[in-house]
Design brief:
- The chain is an all-alpha fold.
- The chain has five helices and two strands; from the N terminus they run ββααααα.
- Strands 1-2 form a two-stranded antiparallel ribbon.
- α3 runs antiparallel to α4 and α4 packs antiparallel against α5.
């Protein structure tokens, strides 16, 4: 026996085999065809790979957030003064790239399509977004290292 589902209109619990909601009369079968899922698919858990992408995205967000906190804290606490526009851009660029990495990681965790995409499409979408987030995170860390190095070797 499959678990009950909720009516998309009145949110009442109904049998997945019911063609019409007994509470409000909404056609259930036509609604299920619109979103492309069967009642059985609605009650199945997400595949493990989708959960792993979400966990990796959370890791990217955590790393980027910690790096933003430490780097921006060091800039403000150290009262970093740049010698020109190029240095200012170099010092600010890691923060911008880390913020982009966080935004891209959020898009991994919250893509559109959980109820409309097939699992394979959803997995490909999440994988592509996670790769983008990881690339931005790696580039941001590289530029962060370069900007700290440039700051340390600057003329006093």
């Amino acid at each position: 026996m499959a678990a009950n589902i909720q009516c998309p209109n009145c949110q009442q619990s109904i049998s997945p085999e019911a063609p019409v909601c007994p509470h409000c009369g909404t056609q259930i079968q036509s609604h299920m065809q619109q979103i492309g899922l069967t009642p059985g698919e609605l009650t199945q858990p997400l595949p493990d790979v989708v959960k792993q992408f979400d966990a990796s995205a959370t890791t990217n967000m955590t790393i980027a957030g910690v790096l933003i906190a430490f780097y921006s804290g060091a800039i403000f606490a150290g009262k970093v003064i740049s010698q020109g526009l190029l240095y200012s851009l170099l010092y600010a660029l890691p923060i911008v790239l880390l913020l982009i990495a966080i935004i891209l990681a959020l898009r991994v965790s919250y893509p559109d399509g959980y109820l409309t995409d097939e699992y394979l499409t959803l997995i490909k979408k999440k994988e592509k977004r996670l790769q983008s987030s990881s690339i931005f995170l790696e580039v941001a860390i590289g530029i962060l290292v370069i900007s700290v190095f440039v700051y340390l070797i600057r003329p006093a």
